[in-house]
Specification:
The chain has 14 helices and 21 strands. The chain is of the alpha+beta class. Strand 15 and strand 16 form a beta hairpin. It binds adenosine monophosphate (AMP).
Length: about 425
């Protein structure tokens, strides 16, 4: 069958790569794709912010299945529009995607359904922020309500800082768009964990756990990014903890959304803080995370098409997701200056030697393009060098050995991916 993937980052490269391994897939099209995806799938241009253009593309291509990678098309309602037209599509509806697209909705939802999360207040004015701040000790976390690509969370050491952050969110100075709502949140401490579940509107099934590295600098310093690396191992959480998270977080979300008339289908990514008081939800993503997806899909032994179909058909309870035992790791090579200003168009060297590799190392492209026959950088995050091995240390060694062969002007990467697990 023909599958269309919407998006053009490392996550979509990993999805296209996984789909290409399935015996059920005869053709993969990716929109808009990137320089790396173009080597394994037909890429067609599309603006992922333009709902009409994406729907027109699906109608023209007529795939048997459409898979939506990024959060923006989901929040615009691409799944609703395609389902209305009788197209088969993987992902949540606009109403279900509010778990990610509105932090205020997610917090209130968790409160309604007794899902553990930090104490919070939703504010619509600066006066309300000042008033509510009295209830919070410092540090306090200030979050923009809407999608912000990792830039909408500010951890504030003082109430004055928190007021300033909230004011900048309301005015649009921080994110470029005015926020109607700002969430204040209790600051939590502990290890972070990402727990992925496949949902079909009724059932939630565990896929795997992973850990992301959001800060740009080694030792978790500097500004937040889209993610500088990730790893996935069986040992990230005990079987008892994974069972607890499935029952008390993922399944509660699915039950709650069904009860509220917005059944949740697709990938539920639970971003958790493992606090001394127990696991608490920091956020939900309603799609595959990036770069965790690169690490997870390299470990996956199940046919990804079976997972996507089970979510759409309501049969997720009939499948068991099979992962390779051991570990995988993904290290991001980013443009110099990222997550601030950076220059694109830098020639990428060293990749051709790697592409004939042993299959344990795959270089997914996050932001690349082909110009005049040369592969060049075309984004902040450029490559996601991913490796799988029986142990995390080995997976990291393989990824870093591959990365050592790659170069482009200004290339930066973190040398300490996986440091918490190795410690
Ligand atoms: P979020 O987009 O809500 O996951 O937040 C991005 C990052 O900010 C998280 O991965 C955490 O590192 C941090 N963060 C968010 N909320 C909190 C909180 N309540 N306490 C401490 N850190 C937080």
């Amino acid at each position: 069958m023909k599958v269309l993937v919407i998006g053009g980052g490392g996550r979509e490269h990993a999805l296209v790569w996984s789909l290409g391994k399935s015996s059920q897939v005869s053709e993969v099209v990716c929109a808009p794709g990137n320089g790396g995806i173009a080597t394994i799938a037909r890429c067609v241009p599309v603006d992922v912010n333009d709902l009409g253009a994406m729907v027109a593309l699906v109608e023209a291509e007529r795939p048997a299945l459409t898979v939506v990678g990024p959060e923006v098309p989901l929040s615009l309602g691409i799944v609703d529009e395609l389902e209305r037209r009788g197209c088969r599509v993987f992902g949540p509806t606009k109403a279900a995607a509010r778990l990610e697209s509105s932090k205020a909705f997610a917090k209130e939802f968790m409160q309604r359904h007794e899902i553990p999360t930090a104490a919070h207040a939703v504010c619509t004015t600066l006066d309300e922020v000042r008033e509510q701040l009295r209830r919070f000790s410092v540090p306090v976390v200030v979050k923009a309500d809407g999608l912000a690509a990792g830039k909408g969370v500010v951890i504030c050491e003082t109430h004055v800082q928190a007021e300033t952050a909230a004011a900048e969110m309301f005015s649009g100075a921080l994110l470029g768009t005015r926020e109607a709502e700002v969430v204040l949140e209790e600051f939590l401490t502990g290890e972070e964990l990402s727990f992925f579940a496949l949902c079909d509107g009724v059932h939630a099934v565990e896929i795997a756990s992973a850990q992301d590295h959001k800060r740009v600098g080694e030792g978790d310093t500097g500004p937040n990014t889209g993610g500088m690396g990730a790893y996935s191992t069986d040992g990230l959480a005990t079987p008892a903890m994974r069972h607890w998270l499935l029952r008390n977080v993922a399944q509660k979300v699915v039950d709650g959304m069904k009860a509220e008339g917005a059944p949740f289908k697709g990938i539920l990514f639970c971003g958790l803080m493992m606090t001394p008081r127990g696991p608490m939800v920091l956020e939900f993503n309603t799609r595959f995370g990036d770069p965790e997806t690169e690490a997870i899909l390299l470990r996956m032994e199940s046919d990804v098409v079976d997972l996507l179909n089970a979510s759409i058909d309501g049969t997720a309870n009939e499948i068991a997701v099979k992962m390779k035992p051991g570990a995988s790791a993904c290290v991001i090579a980013a443009s110099g200056g990222y997550p601030g200003k950076y220059v694109s168009g830098k020639v990428i060297d060293g990749l051709s030697d790697l592409q004939a590799g042993d299959g344990d190392v795959v270089v997914f492209h996050a932001g690349t393009a082909v110009r005049d026959g040369q592969l060049v950088t075309a984004g902040g995050r450029v490559l996601a060098v991913t490796a799988v091995a029986p142990e995390l240390r080995m997976a990291l060694d393989k990824a870093y050995a591959a990365l050592a062969k790659i170069s482009f002007e200004g290339m930066q990467f973190r040398r300490d991916i996986g440091h918490r697990a190795l410690r």
